[in-house]
Write a structure and sequence with these properties.
This protein is of the alpha+beta class. It has 4 helices and 24 strands.
Amino acid sequence: MTLPRLLAPWLMIATLAGPATAFDLPPLPWGLGNAAETQVAPRPVVSEILAETDQHQRSVPGVIAAHTEVNLAFQTLGRLIVRGADLGDKVVQGQELARLDPEDLTGNVRAAQASVDAAEVQLTTAQATEQRTSELARRNVASRAQLEQAEQALAAAQAAADQARSELVRARDAEGFARITAPFDGVISAVYENPGAIVTAGTPILRLSAEDGREAVVDLPEALVATLSRDSRFTVFQNSTPPLETRARIDRIEPITDTATRTRRIHLALENGDAFRLGALIRVGAVTASGEALTLPETAIVLRDGVTHVWRVSRSDERTATVHLVPVETGARLEGRVLMTGGVSAGEEIITRGAYSLSEGQAVGRRVDP
């Protein structure tokens, strides 16, 4: 088929329809590339408006404990028959707190006393034999060997008597170990054994806590402990009625990391510890120099050339904005959030997801909550 015959239908339609301006021909396939490209709207971004973080979000749980406390135990084996104090009881120095069954210990004292009596009889006999043999030796009736034998028997009897007396002293001391008395005034903060239990030497029976000083105890991850210093200050608070709150500082950090939780125990000295009762559950938060506590998710942090940055959004309206990379200073990291110590301020919008897929000055769309 020739080209004129192919174009004939189109020419007939154009003639019937009038001028070309009154009728638009369908676009030909090879002309599609000249159409204007479709404008793509900037993508939405997941961001967060910096604001003072809630006290609970930037705090960790802890407990109020006594600055001085001791586990009390017996120094000997026995059966516990009396426990004169219970959990929460206040006691005074010298008060009896627990006692073992004294029968076995009294029997040991009687046996030791019998051994002393027998050893002293042997000693008296050996002394008499040595004196008699010595007298006979002076009259040349007993030989030198007999005298030496008598002297050796006397020395052995003397040693046996000394040993028996030592055993008696030990048995009497053990009889005294059957009682536990309070070494200082305080309150019973833990009970480990009940009457009737057979306990060995050193088995904890009670825990006594002094009331002259209280502290807050918290367990923190190793990475967070590394950021602390002696100048670090904390807020200790309890959601009670009325709510309690006081400032605290680091008193000591235990050097050993717990192998199960990978945390280290921090002991905080309280400015007003008397307001909190022993064993109370509290929360502890860090105090910043400015008084504000601005935090961001760890996903918002961008590391460039060894410096931490965040993407700050400059928004002209609700749907369009641009992003700019801003260097920042960070502090402690806790539970997926980072304390911001410089470079940003409250009220700024910060990108929290997809931070590594942005470029300086890139246009972004509306804000989306995480």
